[in-house]
Amino acid sequence: MTHTTGILFQLAQSIGVVLLAPLWLGWVNQWRAWLQNRKGPGVLQPYRTMGKLFAKDAVLAHNASPLFRATPYILFGCMWLAAAIVPILATDLPFAPAADVIALVGVFALARVFLSLAAMDVGTAFGSLGARREMLVAFLAEPALLMVFFNASLISHSTSLTTIVGVLAHRQFALYPGMAFSGVAFAMVLLAENARIPVDNPATHLELTMIHEAMILEYSARHLALIEWASALKLLTYTTIGIALFLPWGIAEAGDWGALPLSLALLAVKLCFLGAALAGLETLSAKVRIFRAPEFLGTAFLLGVLGMLNYFLIGA
Amino acid sequence: MRIALFPPIDIVLIIIACWLALGLLSLFSQRSATPVTRWVMPASALASGALLAAGLFALAQPPETAILPLGLPGLPFHLRLDPLSAFFLVLEGGTSFGISLYSAGYFQQRTPRQLGILSLEYHLFLASMALIFVADDAYLFMVAWELMALSSYFLVTTDHEIGEIRAAGYLYLLIAHIGALGILLCFGVLHGAHGDYTFDSMRAATQTPFWATVAFLLALFGFGAKAGMLPLHVWLPEAHPAAPSPVSALMSGVMLKTAIYGLLRVTFDLLHVQVWWWGALTLGLGLLSALFGVLFAAVQTDMKRLLAYSSIENIGIILVGIGLTILFHAYDMGLLAALALAATLYHALNHAFFKGLLFLGTGSVLHATGERNLGRLGGLIHRMPWVALLSLVGVLAMAGLPPLNGFVSEWLMLQAFLLTPSVPHAYLNMMVPIAAGALVLASATAAYVLVKFYGVVFLGQPREPRLGQAHDAGGWERAGLAWLALGCILLGLFPVFVIIALDNVTQSLVGQGLAASASAHGWFFLTPVSPARASYSPVFFLGVVLLVVVLTFLAVRRFYHGRLRRGAPWDCGFPAQTARMQDTAEGFGQPIRQIFEPAFKMTRQLPSAFDEHPHYAVSVADRFWHALYAPTARLAERISGLIGLIQHGRIHLYLLYSFGTLLLLLFFVR
Description:
The complex is a heterodimer of chains A (316) and B (670). Chain A is 70% helix and 1% strand. Chain A is an all-alpha fold. The radius of gyration of chain B is 26 Å and the shape is globular.
């Protein structure tokens, strides 16, 4: 294949992910509604909400600084970059060498720091409360996430996500034993980093419990829409990283364009299933106190370490 | 290209002489501060720029030596400029260029008398650090080392009218000298065959493994005390905040690195063999320092103390890198040792830039508001937009976020960690990747600390009414800040050039370089070991994010609108809110205090429900101080009390002691 098709494909993939991210969030929310015996607003609801928000006039606090206004755009840019470098359909991404898994963690961290700073910008108690809790959850989650990525890197001798996926996908429908531990650890980190139950509740505005929602309380209209979109994108990107690491089977290998339709169909099935599973998990569990979060993420870290020890003990 | 007339080492010597001359010149300006701020400081910055250029030039050159006929008769000063020295000269020149520019504006408020002395000490400090980097015998090294310790002691105690600052200075001087004793003994162990102390003959001498270990441990102790390694760190959070801000920047940015230089010089240049457990020990101490530093930084309420604790964290990260280098080198894994060493040096350079930037930023805030306490600041982004913007660069760099420089060195460090499984030691290769988890915890917590620092100082509402009168930094100060911020950005965006420049240093210390593998894909992609293994492109990273930001902005404007209204923030239906009700620095540190409670020695004073004037206070103390330093001090006092038993103040008794000592010595010498 030529370089140009590769670049076009990568561009198309990132645009596709960006456009479809709210749909998947709608799917998760719809499942939540079904599981809770509600009718649900339909899978397209996130688009409607965003359309409404974009049309409204933005209201800014008197003392909001330029940092506050720039943050939603920066957030969106970071998430777009993350979505562009994760191998979702094919491992052949010409620009994937621009950032490996560690840099991917860095992208998320950059977005998070900007959002936390913006939350402190207006100077309300909630913003700062949310910022501090968000950073707390993040620094507890990051070591666990790194342990997961380290395990994958040790197996594949690379931190490049495309190489990792290439190596892992070769083992047809079998998982490295260590990766099973890492998978659980990754799922726990995913819940924590994306403000899901049991660490945060995306559907609450109850003062004492909110984290992510507290940070964005001062945002409105187009800024809020961009932040919501970026959050949906982050959730989808995290999920696709999880798919790439733990359920990579069926991904199109380098140059194998004929495999793309199958890869797309498999991805759709995986996402549908994982969306429902996420909703089920959130329905079955309750939110924990913020100071139980260290225990939750400590467990994730331990599982990540166990996964890595597996590599050393049994060599895989 | 070779400049025959002036080899770089001569240029370095000329620069050192210039600094000394500038320092002496400022003493003559007793009436007015203008000559010093207008002429001496910018000239000093020029000298720093020349040092940067000379260092960059010397990085690519073979080592050069020179002998200065100074010092004692028959014991001249030996000098040598090799790539390792050149790298640290680049670090000093690059950082001090910005700091001196900044000082030209910052010191304008001092009285002329104060300023003359201050400028002399400042230039002595700069010159002594440059001398350390080019010293080639233990004698000159120790002379320069002591000169650095003393000049920085006087700089720390600039405002000596304040009792706390005198105490901080005393503690600093004490630990500096305990450390210097360690270094002196280390050189004693290493001495050459004929009892001479040039580094050349030390290199030629071979040590038995036992004495090599003794020398290494002494060096680790001595240089660790200067670097602020646990448990010899207590002076650092006292001394750094006490000094004027540009001096804090120099101490944190450059002076701590002299200790790193010394440790590298002794371990990889003067000693020939490394033992793997030295590496494990250094790595462990580094991790402890990093975690300790960052946790304490998170609970500080004084902005300069916060930065000082974060220096302990960064020194910890650098020590982790040195530990990894020793480990790899002990097992003869050249390429990996080069990777770890490059990460170490890179982080040292990055830390000099971003910590210098942030200390200068706090200096501007201090000048504008007269306030160091985080609890009385806030909202300065509106009054001081320049300082806020440039500090934001430093904050993002120090938080280890791409695409700035702090991320690159941490990324390289993690790559080195990932390669430890190839170490042929069954237990070690398992433990070390887990240690990487601790490193990530430290650097992720650093992001927490920096969000707290920036958010409380620059964002939110002003916590005191008088902050409304704060003014932005002047032209000189802005120039200094901008230079360091530019350094953070360039070092972050073009890592391949840095790795290529470091090639000679790693070649000379561990026998292998990274330049070939790191630049295999051109300057655009950084590929430290091999492209299949890992790669990172900060330029692409920044490009995509910026492109998406601009396109999104334009698209939102095009398809929707850019209408904006201003209103009051959401007050939850409680309109009587004041700026004092914002989250404080104490509040921001609360989760850390709660989660890591055993690490701190905390005393809380809680109000009871019936207090007329409820009062809450919490203080966090260092466990090491109570468990290690206080008992040691008591022991020292008791021993000196015992010695006091033979001190009567009578001359004839003292004469008797001298006579007795002489007799005893004669018995030994015969």
